[in-house]
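# step 3/5: fold
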Amino acid sequence: MSEIELKPCPFCGGEAELYSMKRDKRKVLGIYYKIATIKCKRCPAKIEVAGQDNDRAFKNAAKLWNRRAGEQDEVKRK
């Protein structure tokens, strides 16, 4: 899995960690999705994101975890 740095928790400032990677029990269009869970070590904040493989699920979860209000989107708008 690629090295992606996680920002501190947006609620308490605690350290975030990749808590688990598990296979979803539900099959969608013939595919079992992987679920990445990122959680704060200090408070109950967490996010769970599904993807077709572990790397994709973790990258998407990290992107959402690292997003903060007021920051510019990575996508340039015309």
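# step 4/5: annotate
The helical segments are 54-66.
# step 5/5: archive (pending)
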